[in-house]
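PROTEIN DATA CARD
Card holder: Methylase
Chain length: 265
Origin: Kineosporia mesophila
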Amino acid sequence: MTPRPHAVQGTITRGTTNPNRLRRVDRWLSGPAAPRLRRAADPLVVDLGYGASPITAVELRERLSVVRADVDVVGIEIDPVRVAGARPLERPGLTFRVGGFELPLDGRRPVLVRAFNVLRQYAESEVAPAWDLVRSRLAPGGLLVDGTCDEIGRRSTWIAVDGADGPVSLSISLRLGGLERPSDVAERLPKALIHRNVPGERVHAYLNALDSAWARNSPLSSFGVRQRWLAAVSAVKAEGWPVLDGPARWRLGEITVSWDAVRPR
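Structure generated from the sequence above:
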């Protein structure tokens, strides 16, 4: 059932998307976040604001089916024209509908909601209310992933927002080849943090710490950029930054830290 237009919460985004653009966050959803999906009584997942092309929802269904073959992905878009264009791709486990942050799912509650490059186009003051609305619709143990990435997915960041506890972590995932410094990802921080990358803010200090560790470990580049990155992440963890993952994730160009370490002051 499609909700009445006045019930839709949100505004139409530019809709820019590309195949494989969200591979980095999908790799995290099928990795560290996978236990939530495995435990779910209803394996419902939402691709919120998928954009002008439904390809990201199609890819999400394929990638999460490795975790649970019965995963049910619903692509939600505020633009009825985009939804109509996606409908021919519907099949068991993949459907599309008109809606916004209110998640029109006929009473069902998703365990995972991926909202990428959506809130980036909103004001910072609108982020927390959007988070809270989505959280109110999640299943017990559910998670909202609010993130941003560049046009082809080389640089990506996301905040994991727990349905019960609110934001719990910030993840950064980078293509290491050609990386000059980790803080190059700053322009792709989620809306809740992008304007906070200034002196005195925690996320600014965090990115500076990553840059410093990256610079100190430049001699390791002769052994490959991945070795340099592993050493840099190990260094920031040793300095006391609350890194939540381990070398298996770091090798992917990824690092996740506790939200308390980067949250706005």
